Amino acid sequence: MVERSIEPGRRPLRRRVLGVTRALSPLPPSSSNRVASDGIGPSVTAFFPPRFFGKTGLMVGRLGLGSSYGLPGREVERAFDHGVNFFLWGSRRRRDFGLGVRNLARTNREDIVVAVQTYTRMASLMEWSVDRALRSLRTDYVDVLCLAWWNGPTPRRIVDAALELRAKGKVRSLMVSCHHRPTFETFIADPSFDALMLRYNAAHPGADREVFPLLGGPNRPGVVGFTATRWGTLLDPRLVPSTEPAPRASDCYRFAMTNPYVDVTLTGPKNAAELDEALCALARGPMDQAELAWMRRVGAHVRDATAKPKRVGLLDLVDRVATSSLCKPKELPGG
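Predicted structure:
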């Protein structure tokens, strides 16, 4: 068993290392030839071994699975056999993905990390959303509840509702996701949050300057990186400089996982072939300095080639209106 001390008043979290470090069988014959040629096999996690997820005390594999793109449940279970134990039933709670997580939880609950997201701006709806996830996955708790898409300080009513769920034992840890990097300083300073979810890829490496330097110390929050392929644009040969080879998806995942601050890099495969390519990143290992420089050159070019005027997202607009309404002074009776 692996144990880690955590702050007083919090339930100790335990994770067997077995679930993410045991000997791994080779990929089945249905796997793509490209992955087979890269040699994913018994030591698939040797280059990227499991690690503690910041101060949560959870042990996580370095590659995490997101549910939004329709990966079948049987492939979710196969991913676990190859070192993946972080499962985000996120923006789109796909039923078959959830069945895969449910099957794993039936016999391996202490070996997997289940995360769910809530985008609610109404604190009263949060418990309903979490309870629905618990019923679907047939588990008594989720390891991580992510308060999603807060590009400014999260209102206290939302944080308090999440903390209440943690006190009830329905949630073990709290994570917050954000696209506005300067806001992370506020989240890091708030002891309510155990983990951060941020955009990190070769085209958007700003966290290297604005977030990661703030994470010093052993009691830092866990970090989940998402959009490693920048929604596929880093893989598009039409956007890559003619003098550079186009990255593979596994290159994008390796770029993120090579960063020492990124505990989990999310992948959102839609089928077995895309999962195989993601798993290939674990077998190929960290990037050297030349590879990192290549990815940064490609990333900068892709970012410039796809630059668009910034738009205000719907949730950002809702948050701005809510903040404006709360801050507006009330008019006293009689003028």
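Summary: The domain at 2-327 is CATH 3.20.20.100 (TIM Barrel).
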